[in-house]
C-alpha cells in the first residue's frame, strides 16, 4: 500500500471536510484502521512515511505532522518514546487511528463516565501493543500510552481534525488528568486552544521549515551524550539561567535519539531502506553514524581487502545496456531498481559484481583502487553486499 492509496480512501469514504465539525461514522474510522494495518504489514508504506518524516522533520522530537491529508485535514505524525516515557493520562475527543511502528507500548485506558463523575481518573484497561498493532479511538476517550521497554519505540498517529480536550470544561478539574499542551499562537489574534498530549502541533509553514532545518543542522553539530532514559525534558530546565543553551543541547541529543530510533525501525526493512539509512548516516552525529553503518552492514572505513558478501538472497543482480552505458539492476520478481550506470569500459566490473556471492573491493576488475572502494561502498549502502564480519554478528 502507498500513501496515495491511503489518502484516496478518505475521499472514497466521503470523510467530512476539515472546515466542518462533522465526524465520520465509526465504521469509516475502522476502515482507515484496517487500511493502516494492511499498510504496515509490509515495508512499502512504512518506508514511504519514514522518508517523508525524515525529509520534512529531520529528527525533530516533538509530535507534529509530517503530512496532512488534503481536504479532510487528517494529520499524520510519528511519536517517539524514550525508554520509560509516559504521555500522561489525556483526552481525545475526535477520532484517531494509532499504530505501533517500532518496538512496543503499553496503553492504560480510563472510564470516561466514571472519571467525569468522580473527577479523578478511574482505570479501565491496560494492554500491551507490539509493533504492527493498530487501533482506533472514537472519542471521547482518556488514555495513557507509555514505553515500558529499555529501547525507544515509535508510534504512528492519524488524527481527526477536531481533536481537543473537553472534559475539564464540562466538569471542572479532574485529578490525575495531564494538562493539555498549549497550541501554538493562533493567527489573527484568536485565542490559542489547548491540544491533547498526544495530538500534534499544527503543520509548520514552509518558510519556518527552512529555518528549522538550519537550526537542526546547527543543533546536531552541538550534540551531547548521556543516558537516554534519564534526560530531563528541555522544558524542565526553563527556570535555569543556562537553560536556553543546555535546552538546545538536549534538543540536539533528542534529535539524535530520534534518528537512532529511525535507524532501528529501518534496520530490518530490506534493500529499499538502505537509501534512508544512508541519509540518516549522513545527517547524524558519530553515534548515529555508527548505528546506521551497522544497520547498513558496513564498517566506517572500508578496507580494499575486506570480504563482502551478498545480502537479500531473493534479489538478483543483472547487467543491461542502455544507450552506450552499462547498468547494474537489482531485480526482485517483476520489480527492477537501477543501482548504477557506468561507461562501457567499466562493464566488466559490473559483470563481476552481478556474478559474485562474495567479493573483495580490490578484486573488482578494471578499476583503480579509489573506484573499487567507491563502488564497494555504494553496494554496501544499497544493502546489496555487507562485510563478512557484519554477517557473522
Ligand atoms: Fe493520545
UniProtKB/TrEMBL annotation:
Basic residues bias: start-end ranges: 188-198
What InterPro entries does the record tag this protein with?
RmlC-like_jellyroll, RmlC_Cupin_sf
Which intervals carry biased composition (Low complexity)? 178-187
Q: Which Gene3D superfamilies match?
A: Jelly Rolls
Q: Which residues cross the membrane?
A: none
- Organism lineage: Bacteria, Pseudomonadati, Myxococcota, Polyangia, Polyangiales
The ranges of region (Disordered) come to: 177-250
Q: Indicate what this protein is called per its UniProt record.
A: Cysteine dioxygenase
